[in-house]
Amino acid sequence: MSVTVDQFCERLRDRLNAIEGQMRTVKANIQNRSEEAERALQAKLDVIRTKLQARKECAEMAGAYLKEMAQQKMADTKEAISEWKAKHETRKLRARADRAEAYATAAIDFALASIDEAEEAILDAVVARIDADAAK
Q1: CA 27, 28, 33 angle in degrees (round to 5)?
Q2: Helix, coil or strand: residue 34
Q3: Residues 28 and 106: beta-carbon distance below 8 Å
Q4: Which of 37, 128, 132, 134 lies at a CB distance of 3.0 to 4.6 Å from 32, suitable for a disulfide?
Q5: Greatest extent of the chain over all pairs of C-alpha atoms, in Å
């Protein structure tokens, strides 16, 4: 694999490991429903909301880029790509590979923003449940 692909895979692995760690923390907080856990959940929710707000702009840019790249992919027909290969048009083939890698990165950024949003929703639900249970 190319160095770029290896780096891309490593960044993806790091991001997924970070998300997994966050989910473990959330699960631990959910299992401990003490007042301290509720405060910790609220603090975590505040952090997630701040992070989500910061990521929204990135997600919007990634979404726009994904749409643009989808149009470009449609323009790069199979026939054109086969022709580039046959004519050894490496510049066009490399540009297509660069676009594909950029598209994958943008898709990951968009997915991560969605995961952050889901994490916020989970924490909102937990806090709401704790509030409901406390009102009994």
Answers
A1: 100
A2: coil
A3: no
A4: 37
A5: 74
